[in-house]
Amino acid sequence: MMTPMNQTHTKRTYLDYNATTPIRPEVVKGVCMAMETIGNPSSIHHEGRQARKLIEQARAQVAELVGAQTKQVIFTSGATEANNMVLKGYASHRRLLVSATEHPSVLYAGVDVETIPVHSTGLINLDALKELLDKDTRPSFVSIMAVNNETGVIQPLKDIATLLKNYECLFHSDAVQAVGRIPLYFSTLNVDFMSLSAHKIGGPHGVGAIIMGKGTNPPKLIHGGGQERQQRAGTENVAGIYGFGIAAACALNGLETYKNLETYRDQLEATLKNAPTDVIIHGHDAPRVPNTISASIAGFEASTLLMNLDLAGISVSTGSACSSGSVQASHVLTAMGATESQAKSGLRLSMGWATTQDDIDAFTQAWTTLMERLTPSCQN
Ligand code: PMP
Predict the structure, then answer these.
(1) Mutate to test the pocket of ligand 1, among 17, 84, 105 (most ligand atoms within 8 A of CB)
(2) What are the residue ranges of helices labelled H in the chain?
């Protein structure tokens, strides 16, 4: 039998919540219960109605978490699908403008995507956005994430929406890394679409949602039955959606205390700076969510640090994608003006609902040992 990670005998320290979060025990319980529900939620008999009830409960919980109405929530297979749904939906008749630091599911969802630069802080360059909109007056579709997955930088969605009101423009925000971390009220943000993912808030993988503003009706990405108000065909993932709802309720409950992670973040940053070379904390001059640190340690490749930390029982990630053994520079850090070596040495630490002081202490101990061991050979 496969052994879940949390049941291995060696104690591990998980600091990679922005990749995915450990599933909450309440969610596991709910998903197991929902998997035993027999009906297809589109069937009108008793079993069908039971399954429908689970989905509608989740829809209300997800809507409440983001301050939207239930009818605005359309469930998808995740945020990748939600992002593709709207970007591909509008690509044929609108200009697509996306920030340079978007997730690949936004950056590569359209053929002719134009990128909006960011400042070195990671914040969107509003003047550059205005210039892009002024120079070509065709209707546009703008996508700017609420919180960056590598740096945790929070974009000023309200200010952006205010600017966009002067143009014929639809506004989408990938809010995957914002939801459950900062308060979000869809109804007052003046955003037309928002993408969410369950597994970033203690829910199951493979479930997400697109929140649709009033009067919006994007062309369909997936054709078939009439599920999800004709917007997303396919029999719903009942158990996954039900788990998403429970995770959303837990995230809403935990929102007040989430900012306590800042204490851990400060400790981790102090530990990282305890390196023999220069340490840059990316995005630290901008508003950031409390759970994320993106750091470059001069002279140390992030992949080397990651592998050594992994061996010491600590899970972190690099800001950059590794392919065929070669480390690629992070497009996020590059867009923020980092040098190639800084963009290749981005290390990301991210925390969440189950992080404890023990995790922080374990990281500090492993880091100190690692720096002592690696310094003679790696130092610049
Ligand atoms: N957007 C952002 C900002 C993300 O961090 C992720 C997950 N890495 C996604 C989109 C994709 O979400 P999903 O895994 O649900 O497809």
Answers:
(1) 105
(2) 25-35, 46-66, 79-91, 104-107, 126-135, 157-164, 186-189, 238-258, 261-273, 302-311, 331-335, 340-344, 357-378
